[in-house]
Fold each of these.
Amino acid sequence: MGRLGPRCDPAEDAPLASLSTRTSLRYRHGRKYHRMDAPRIAPLPTDDWDEETRTTLGSALTGPDGTPLNIFATLAHHPKLLKRWLVFASHTLGKSTLSPRDRELLILRTGWLCGSEYEWGQHVLIARDAGLTDDEIGRVREGSTAAGWSPLDAALLRAADELHEHAVVSDETWATLAEHYSTQQLLDVVFTVGQYHTVAFALNSCGVPRDAGVPGFDDSPGA
């Protein structure tokens, strides 16, 4: 299958390393990713949130220490965007037709492919709660060809790879998924990967700092 669109991979060699003097190039398992020394858009302190934002984030997830997640505090700079994005985010994370385990396989693989340390670390914690073992989380880094995956697990990881690389799920992978999933679940596969690409773009480009207690690439399973 030929490439149908550009890659969104920050591992590409282009001029990304020169975008900011605050951005350093790192490597994990041969994959390049960028870690900023300081955020480009600092999380907005809760005292500066407007009433709309306080209402929007009233029931949002918090970090291990009980404080608002930095991704939400960063998007608090744009309350209208935050409010509308959360509708979609709430569906993919909490109301999807996929099982939590299957959803987290897709999200972890997307975070790894996009070099998003924040996304990866947050979902290491969520994936554990969803039933993934540390061995499985570590194997997500290797992808669908790692030993031990079921046919469905491998197809999910391939779907994330193919959407990342080509912006389309291959016929072979789609057929495997369709053996197990309803039409709604197939749609949720595609939209989950798309949602977490969007999130990775924002996290990476804004330099959102990891929240307290959230692991990075260097201190999580498979490191």
Amino acid sequence: MKRSSPINFLPGPVAIHPAVREALARPAVSHRGAEFMAEVESIRRALCRMTGAPHVEMLLGSGTLANETVAAQLSRLPGRGLILVNGEFGSRLVGQAERWKLPFRALAAEWGEPLPLPELRRAVAADPEVRWIWAVHCETSTGVLNDLDGLVEIAEARGIALCLDGISSIGNVPVDLSRVQWATGVSGKGLASFPGLALVFHAAPIEPNPDLPQYLDLGSYAQSGSVPFTTSTNLVSALAASLARFTRRDGFAERRELAAWARPRLEGLGFTVMAPPEIAAPMVLTLVPPRGADALALGERLEEEGIWLSYRSGYLVERNLIQICLMGEHHLGELEELLAVLAARLGKSAARPTVAPHVGAAASLPAAG
């Protein structure tokens, strides 16, 4: 029977704290008002402290929009680039680069494998015309957390720009953007607010460029305190409330511990986690179901019972995958309910882990409430 309040394990929209919902519901104010502009500036400072980035701009839109603004910046650079792919969202960067007619070469690894950094190192050394690298930090489709330090080292050795899709990593894991030229994020994943604000971090001051589409001109945002056009004061207020909560708790540790608790128990039910433990992101568990189980049908049954998992995206359906994402507000009791329902649906008992969890006893994990 469906719950009155669903349990949300989606990668977006994520489970949101009541204080953030209350902030969204406040009356809208003028986006030109001094108080609102001060709130925007406070958010920008908080995001820079969190990531180490020198600058950040906020746009009204999705993560795809954020990556479009990076592509716009890359279109102004000389030379050519390298785009790394080991999942769906790396492939989307390739598609965006093609639409912008950027000169680049793609370097690919299989789904669930790390980025091909040795091949990248060779490609950079062999081609003096390479001026930029573009990669996804957390590949949401597979749950792989790619090696940011390795990317930084390769880029800095040649003095070329590193661009990072941090949409699923910022707010979910510690991210150091201090040595990244451009990076993207969003309000609605790890920052545990509502979708609708695109974030673009940049290493150097930037001026408006009249050769770029106006809405994608990052310099226009920088010049106007990140509010060159009408924006949603409600979404900004909600993000401010979520960031305030973030500074009062260790969300990184919570998600890491919950994932470490869940992984061996899911394996005990017959699921295979696509990302190996040594490269797995703590907030995305991409699962291959037990033999004979259909991910789409399983997801639909769970949804009927009020438990939301990610399973409808075409790239998941094609590969018979289902995902548990811990990007918002979660507690141990929700995972216990999920495991019990999965066990019942698969005709199994809620198995104990086949290997020891990576953290302390379950009693030390975040409790309900």
